[in-house]
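Sequence in, structure out. First:
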Amino acid sequence: MDTVLFIVFAAVAVACAVNLILQKHPISSALSLVGVMGSLAVLYLLLGAEFMAVTQIVVYAGAVMVLFVFVIMLLNTGQETGGGKSWFAQVAGLPLLLAFIALMGLLICGPLMPRLRAVQFGSWHGGTARAIGRAIFTDYLLPFEVTSVLVLIAILGAVVLARKEID
């Protein structure tokens, strides 16, 4: 049953991702992104990472998507107008895509295959809030603090840019 659910929600995630790229209206793209994030949350649940699944829904599908939709509405963007595609993209796009897929398949099935093992759904028990908090504040304290400083710098930069526009 886990394998069937994995295949179904992986297919939904890929379909929503393709729809995200192909949509011409930004709101439809944002809704497709919500579908991708919801499918990823279910995949996290299948792997036993309950905390990551809830975080995926609350933070990304909730807060970040509300912010995206707010910015889209604020900018009042309409439907995307089709621009002229370059001749190189039209001629070489599909062959380069197929070559990339073949190369990735060879890399994954070649040197990586002996080291891969089958996924046991629900066997990993490291996805709890306690385990993640312990890892963040012990093993990954420096990257966590560096990330928080970078976010603080980004917030200050946004305030400075917004202040210049007001003046």
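Second:
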Amino acid sequence: MTGREIAVRDFTEGEWFERGGFTVLTEYSVVGAWEAIRQRWVLIDETGNRINHVYDQRLYSAIELKRLMLVSGFSSVEIYGDFSFSPYNEKARTMVLVARK
């Protein structure tokens, strides 16, 4: 998932791209003290019809998720920066947690 640390580091106010026959326009804004990112997506089809989606993506820091998982009964939680198990540091591409019961 995208950790809060990565969301802060890589934040952008919006972008556009093509996907599945739609032009997608996005607009992002920070909710609270980086508790979430509000995302507004406008999908435009080839005839100009628009579909609007607005949602909030909750953000968790790595240590916050680790604590929540340990409190939930997991015996160990390891945090990595990608699926190759690279360190979760300033160069991390994503956040991968491996938890054991």
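Remark: Residues 20 and 45 are 9 Å apart (CA to CA).
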